[in-house]
Batch of 4 targets.
Target 1
Amino acid sequence: MAIENVPDAREIEQTAIRLYFTAWEHVTDIIIPLLESHSGSIQLIDRTLTPTKDEMDFDGSIISVITEAEAEAVLKQYIARAQPDLHLCYALIQQSQEIALKARICAVSPFLLLLGSEVKSWAKPNGDFTDFRTLDAVDLIRVVNAVCSKPVSEQFATKFDIIRRGRNKIQHLGSFKDAIDPIAALDVLVEQWLELFPDRSWLQEFKGIIIDHHISTIVDDSDFGEVWSMLGNIERANLMLTDRQRRRLFGISDKARLFDCFYCRHESKWDDRGNDSRIATLEPNGNIVHCHLCLENTKVSRIRCFDPECGCDVIYAEGDYEGECAVCGEPQPLASEASA
Ligand SMILES: [Zn+2]
Ligand SMILES: [Zn+2]
């Protein structure tokens, strides 16, 4: 006899990663407007108040600046209204964690997933694996720690347990009273990646998810392809993550100077330079810029940019962008022009 549809560890892990990034995008959508309101790039409006004529622009848009207390009330309401989405995020996180742990067990042997199930309940000859009852979530960490070469950290095991036991406990991870804090959800996602997918590149996997997304089968991505999407995701991640989190997730040191990768710029048609989406760093030899997204290495010359306000001393020295500054993107005047 043979059992049909015996799971493949790599495929299961891929499912966990897909759920992970769906949760990531939900959390991002909640945190970014909070950060923007904090930095002043979006204006908070108290919709419960009726604006006076003076507080309205000629087109009816509200221009009044609200008080600190009013702003606090608005943000509280924002967090309250985000709760259903945050509960969804935690459901996705929980599922992603369970599936990732199952993938680890499956990599040792898929049949370990059947541990503890009643043999009487096993499917008939030529049965389908999906009809078998597999390990309960409550036992996953114990099994991983028994059969896998790398055990799950105590810290992760505690958090996994809190999340597994349900939503009522989730709120205790956050700082908002009686509500899930989106920043706590982000912290969970960062730690989860490092714990469960340590051999996978966050940037490459996120790009892969975008490439495989169903929308790419029907949308012409010549303008808004995966690199364009990823530069946006990097920009948002850079806004949300602490230096330490970014270093651990992207493998880029806190102090590293970040440069534009012109392959990615060109590919994405993203021309808004000077933003937070830079993801290329100088290699230790000082003569190569490595892009952590497209993985291209480009030779650079260490000449100071002609624009004194730029201050960069890294100029691309090969390819289509030869002679352009790796920060401001300005083509440098030729030596003969400069000396003239
Ligand atoms: Zn690149
Ligand atoms: Zn420059």
Target 2
Amino acid sequence: MSPTVQKTQDVKGATPAQDVVIEMKHVSTSFGTHVVHTDVNLQVRRAEIFALIGGSGSGKSTLLREMILLQQPKSGVINVLGSDLANLGDIDATALRRRWGVMFQHGGLFSSLTVKENIGLPLREHTDLDDALIDEIAAWKLSMAGLAPEVGAQYPSELSGGMMKRASLARALALDPELLFLDEPTAGLDPVSADGVDQLILKQRDIFGLTIVMITHDLDLLWQVADRVAVLAEGTVQACGSMLALSRMDNPAVKKFFSGPRSRAAQQQADVQHTKNSEKTANTANAVEGPSSKQK
Ligand SMILES: Nc1ncnc2c1ncn2[C@@H]1O[C@H](COP(=O)(O)OP(=O)(O)OP(=O)(O)O)[C@@H](O)[C@H]1O
Ligand SMILES: [Mg+2]
């Protein structure tokens, strides 16, 4: 189904339950005496690009790890793809893991495996496909992530930062997930490589209808691709909305992200992009709502 059909309009009122892919209610997390989350509440909607932002150490990666069953909160409810994560048996947990892909903050590729073997790993773990088919799928995912076929035979240590991110994205997409988690997908990349990753992310949502949850500090990426952004600070979600809505808020925790020169440059660039896209789509009937046509 087209993601533009699936996507819920950002209107006031409750999102229909079938359009909520992830829900966190009153989630609190502590490590010993260190309290990270006190009361996190959020909803991620089907086929949206949902971003989590917040200062370093505010608990973004921890929240993501809780969404993907790598960590349990101290209290609260986390529901993903219709399942309450606290009440999952092993079989249901494995079935659920098969429905999402994850790109970890530090890549998470196995250094002793080639890129192609890394991409094929989720297929080996979760399916009975034979080696030849797994290799074929891995090669296809490699090209989808914008990497040349020969990269498949290379080891992670031989890749540039941008190639590593792409290989890691290819692995996250191996099982054709419905839900994609990206932890800092553009961190450490030069602007051209980062822009390539922006486009890849958009493509996953626009063509394949994936729901995407990403953590990022990259303001360009936020302005270019995020539908809604949740700001995490002091243990809770301080605000959640479009970048435009957040940029107009008075909340000091939110304002911090929009006050620097990098933020203003990113917003100007997004405005230029928006104008170009508006001109392109001006004559198109039924213009779709998406990041490129959003008001920014
Ligand atoms: N397994 C753990 N044991 C103890 N403390 C942890 C653990 N995981 C995370 N923390 C602590 O929880 C806090 C939040 O960490 P987290 O990695 O979620 O932050 P973050 O918002 O992703 O930061 P960054 O932007 O730097 O990636 C940090 O203070 C971290 O030290
Ligand atoms: Mg992190």
Target 3
Amino acid sequence: MPEDKDASLDQERASTLTCPDCHTDLALPTGRGRGAWRCPRCDRQLSGAWTLKPDSLLALSVATAFLWVPALTLPLLRLENLGLDNSASLLDCTVALLQGVYLPAGVLLLFTLLTMPLANLIAVSRLLWAAREHMPVHSPRWMQVYRLSREWAMTDIFLLGILISMTKLGDLATVKPGAGIVCLGLAVLLRLIVETLAQPDQLQRLMDQQAREVADAR
Ligand SMILES: [Zn+2]
């Protein structure tokens, strides 16, 4: 009977997974074991160490979005040397770089520090909202943008750079951290938590499973 065959195929698809990198068919882990699940053949991470909770991750994404505004506009550092006092926000730095001879660096900063983190935030919020509401996401673009922006959003590296330069500049001038760097630090921390817990493959599987449940209920 074709319907029985379809149902058993669906069941099989629900209990196995093809590794996206090496295309090995793997059985989904049954128990709630601890630790991340990796492909035994190519070591690709297939799911995070924790269960995916769209509700709380969506809340963290919204908090990140609110933190981004002061992180961009408030001064990152205040530099004082021989009576000269200077401070700049992340937005000021990017605009200044885009105008001078450092245009390529400015474009890179704009891409890795503003465009990609923003795309990441929008894409992950869209996907988590869909998972929370059990709504199918029809366009595969959202997942593609999420995967791509995870690679290219480099706010954490920028933050590390600022902290290193603060210690180096400490010998030459008085460096005081501004409110912007605190907000940026918190935004980076929240983004890393969301990215660690919302692994793309795991999120995709959750949405596929929800789509199957919706189809079965009809
Ligand atoms: Zn693999």
Target 4
Amino acid sequence: METGTSCAVWRERTQAWLRGQGEPGDREAIAAHRGSCPECQQYYRDTVELLAQMRQGETRQIAQSPSGEKGRRRRNLWIALALPVFALLLWNTVKRDVAPREEGLRAEGSGARVDGRALAAETWVDAPENSALETDANSRVRLVLPAASAELEGATRCLLERKSPLRLRVLAGRIRVRGDAQIISNLAELELSGGEAELECDGASVRVRSHSTGVKLTDTTGTRLLPPGEERVLDR
Ligand SMILES: [Zn+2]
């Protein structure tokens, strides 16, 4: 989902690293990607859990030191049990690469709120229009809709005004959106059709940045296209 290396490649590297077959720097690089990719973060957790379960199974097997025909049967049983788990893991990986598992809001960390109510971490909830969304310095929220998605990073407050097409009104903080979306702040407004852009706002100034073509910026001087990679800071 991020630029450059695809999630599939990150997951291969994650697997290799968890098996002790990684390369120098893998640990930091993988952690950095997981920090910005909830799907790969979930994949990492699933894999760690699966490997732990397999190691437990191996330890039990060695402790029982099976031998002969009985041992072979036990090993075959173990393979028969492990294969479906691997298949399920692989299927989930494929599914996650194709589309997000669910729609709605998902929080990382425990400091996110919807209309003042705490949002449980790592679970999907629906967000009605006109919901007030908040994150604190240690939490992030991902909003996934059919035609757009958004990420709210630490200490962000915004209003989910409309879901289709997505319209978010930012009071403070940083929001990154993809798809068909509008982000509105007191000093500037971004409108995207299928692209990616971000807006950061602290009340006194607004910073906007485009990550794709087709990002329209509207401020007091009018409306114009903001080319990919371009950043503007607007002051009151
Ligand atoms: Zn990823």
